[in-house]
């Protein structure tokens, strides 16, 4: 999954948070600045009014796991799922299709 390409589809408020960081993964600090509560996060939608995926680094809860890598994903609508979003933007016939091409 090209999360950087997926992040190009984010609403401007979230893009302005991630672009200075090079378009990579969100941190929990970035998410807190953009959407301090879940209800604020739930309001984020794409240009067509659909929920959006967001990819972020989990917080390091223990010093022993700081060097382990992981990526979390979530949707801005609890009733939507990443699989539905992937079906909209990725075709089984063209598995490397970029979300920017949709």
Average the pLDDT over all residues and give the rounded result.
80
Low-pLDDT stretches are none
Spatial strand arrangement across the major sheet: 1-2
Query: What spatial form do the alpha-carbon principal axes imply?
Result: globular
Q: Helix amount, in percent?
A: 25-40%
How widely separated are the two ends? 15 Å
Beta content comes to 5-15%
* Class by alpha and beta content: alpha+beta
Radius of gyration: 14 Å
Number of helices: 5
Query: H/E element string?
Result: HHHHEEH
The figure for the number of domains is: 1
Can you characterise this structure?
The protein has 102 residues and is α+β, with helices and mostly antiparallel strands. The protein has one domain. Helices cover 31% and strands 8% of the residues. It contains 5 helices and 2 strands. A two-stranded antiparallel ribbon has the order 1-2. It is globular and about 40 Å long. The two termini are 15 Å apart.
């Amino acid at each position: 999954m090209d999360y950087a390409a997926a992040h190009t589809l984010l609403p401007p408020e979230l893009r302005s948070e991630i672009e200075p960081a090079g378009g990579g993964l969100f941190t929990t600090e970035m998410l807190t600045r953009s959407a301090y509560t879940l209800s604020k996060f739930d309001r984020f939608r794409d240009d067509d009014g659909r929920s959006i995926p967001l990819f972020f680094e989990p917080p390091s809860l223990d010093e022993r796991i700081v060097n382990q890598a992981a990526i979390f994903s979530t949707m801005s609508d609890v009733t939507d799922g990443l699989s539905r979003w992937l079906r909209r933007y990725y075709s089984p016939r063209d598995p490397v299709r970029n979300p920017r091409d949709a």
